[in-house]
Design a protein that fits this description.
Layout (H helix, E strand, L loop, with lengths): L40 E4 L2 E4 L14 E6 L12 E4 L3 E5 L8 H6 L2 E3 L5 H4 L1 H12 L5 E5 L1 H10 L13 E2 L2 E2 L1 E5 L6 E3 L2 E7 L7 E6 L5 E4 L8 H8 L4 E5 L7 H6 L5 H8 L8 E5 L6 H11 L4 E3 L5 E3 L1
Parallel strand pairs: 5-6, 6-7, 7-10, 14-15, 15-16, 16-17
Antiparallel strand pairs: 1-2, 3-4, 3-18, 4-5, 8-9, 11-12, 12-13, 13-14
Bound molecules: zinc ion (ZN) (2 copies).
């Protein structure tokens, strides 16, 4: 493509983000935009914009966009703990934030919805709050979860011993952290989104999530859970088509999975059978890294090609 350019007589300039194109018709040739260190660009009504949807808000496009910051059941090199960035503004769990996002992406986050308070699901929050305060960005992050999860965070993490109480920093009237309690099974609303949190079966208070965007696109996410019933009933009732579900251990460790409130591929198969209409798109998370190949093979045994593990940094569009 580049070689043929000098032969074109009517090229005026190389477009830059923010350029306004006057006069029409215009023929616009896309070079490899990455060669010029752009994000993808898009041209609307003659103005060149950076395309935001890969990293930021996609609400204009009616799409629910979920970026997988981490989906591992523990942390090792190249595998991060669970965190799912929805439309650039909301996190489902926060096992990793600052290690995955650029500063400007971190600053766009407005809320974190927590399934439970286990360390691998909250680990990114203390550093994120610290970053926001030291940068003076004046963001307030709202952490949303069940009353018991929020109580555990207050008592055990942001207690001025393990980490500061950020609900008073930088000032009590404009803090960087706020808590919002969600009642189980009652619909919560924020920014046109609808959130339902349903109790699941883990070793600590834990909730599965169904999140619906303003255009009705839905994602269901179990967080960590062993066998459960209520959550599947709601997923059925809400006719969810995309599900992120955990599968932490291989089949031979079923006893350990049950004792620690987790699933194996064989247990997952039984869970999915509890629904009348299981979601057609099912993605797995939370495999313990040392068992990953074994679990993946077992999953193929129960659902060849239809269920797969999430890849870190992939983006799901719904
Ligand atoms: Zn857990
Ligand atoms: Zn976990």
């Amino acid at each position: 493509m580049k070689e043929s350019l000098p032969a074109c007589r009517n090229i005026i300039k190389l477009l830059r983000i923010g350029d306004v194109i006057q006069g029409s018709p215009a023929i616009i040739v896309f070079l490899s935009t990455h060669a010029y260190n752009y994000p993808e660009t898009i041209i609307i009504y003659g103005t060149v914009y950076a395309q935001q949807i890969r990293h930021g808000s996609a609400r204009e496009a009616d799409i629910l966009r979920i970026r997988i910051l981490g989906a591992s059941g523990s942390e090792v090199a190249d595998r991060r703990a669970p965190a799912f960035l929805v439309d650039g503004e909301s996190l489902l769990d926060a096992g990793t934030i600052g290690l995955s996002l650029k500063i400007r992406e971190e600053q766009k986050i407005r809320r974190i919805i927590l399934t439970h308070a286990h360390f691998d699901h909250i680990k990114g929050i203390p550093f994120m709050l610290d970053n926001l305060v030291t940068r003076g960005t004046a963001n307030t992050i709202t952490v949303i979860s069940g009353r018991d999860v929020i109580r555990d965070l207050k008592t055990n993490i942001f207690n001025n011993k393990i980490w500061p109480d950020f609900t008073k920093i930088p000032t009590p009237d404009r803090p960087v952290l706020r808590y919002r309690t969600a009642s189980a099974s009652r619909e919560e609303r924020f920014n046109g989104y609808n959130l339902v949190m349903i109790r699941v079966n883990h070793t600590v208070p834990a909730y599965g999530i169904i999140l619906t965007n303003p255009k009705g696109k839905k994602i269901a996410y179990t967080g960590d859970t062993g066998p459960t019933d209520r959550f599947w009933k709601k997923v059925d009732e809400y006719r969810v088509k995309h599900l992120i579900v955990e599968s932490s251990f291989p089949n031979r460790l079923e006893d350990l999975a049950l004792k620690t409130g987790h699933l194996t591929p064989a247990l997952l198969k039984k869970e999915l059978a509890k629904m009348g209409n299981p979601p057609p798109k099912i993605y797995l998370m939370h495999a313990k890294p040392q068992y990953f190949p074994e679990i993946e093979q077992e999953i193929q045994g129960i659902a060849r090609g239809t269920i797969r593990y999430l890849r870190q940094e992939e983006v799901l569009t719904i």
